[in-house]
Amino acid sequence: MIDTLSLPLEERAARRALRDFSADAGFDYYAYLHLRGPESFTVSNYPREWQDIYVRNNYLRVDPVVTNAKHGPSIFSWSAADAKRSGRRDVTQFYSDASRFGILSGLSVSVPVGFKDRMVFTLASDNPRVRIDSEPDPVTAAVAVAFVHSRLGAASHDATMAADIHLSPREAECLRWFADGMSMPDIAETIGIGYRSVRSYLDAATRKLGASNSRQATSIAIRLGMI
């Protein structure tokens, strides 16, 4: 996979290469997930219906693979059977939905990027459990994920996790003026509301976007096409 992705492939060729690699390794699906707060996105060959269900139900917050990727080892296998033992109703529902599309087990590699971001590459199958002949080398696996990112990081996203973020008209308006360099008193005067209201709208938008301050919130909102 590393040798193939090291070539200057276009997006379609890179997707085809990952699909073929997954099949050769005995898996049905591949998924590249870039965990980046509200800007998280996936590129995969999962069925479109499953991707829509995943985003609509906000399964990013429930998915045990994502939880393990954030807090567990860099390489790990997973299965619906093991996850259901947790007794959590939301996890059981997650795998109940996933099993309809033949997603029962898999192998994932998690690579940290910066302070909080992560790149996660997953191979999934309809087998009850993953069978691995030898333990993957963590360094080689991390390099492979880096090559996946180099080919798919700028690809057209199959699913974005910002679907559940909704700014109110006032929040978006205040952010838009703030992005243009206006101070909060100037924004208040321009749209005819109090300074404290502007501050409240900006704070609310910042929380929704998972940003640390209003300036970062404007950057995220612009990249997501919200303002």
From TrEMBL:
Protein name (database record): Autoinducer binding domain-containing protein
Keywords: DNA-binding, Plasmid, Transcription, Transcription regulation
Lineage, broadest ranks: Bacteria, Pseudomonadati, Pseudomonadota, Alphaproteobacteria, Hyphomicrobiales
Tree of life domain: Bacteria
Pfam families: Autoind_bind, GerE
Transmembrane portions of the chain: none
HTH luxR-type domain span: 160-225
Keyword Transcription part of the UniProt annotation: yes
Organism of origin: Jiella pelagia
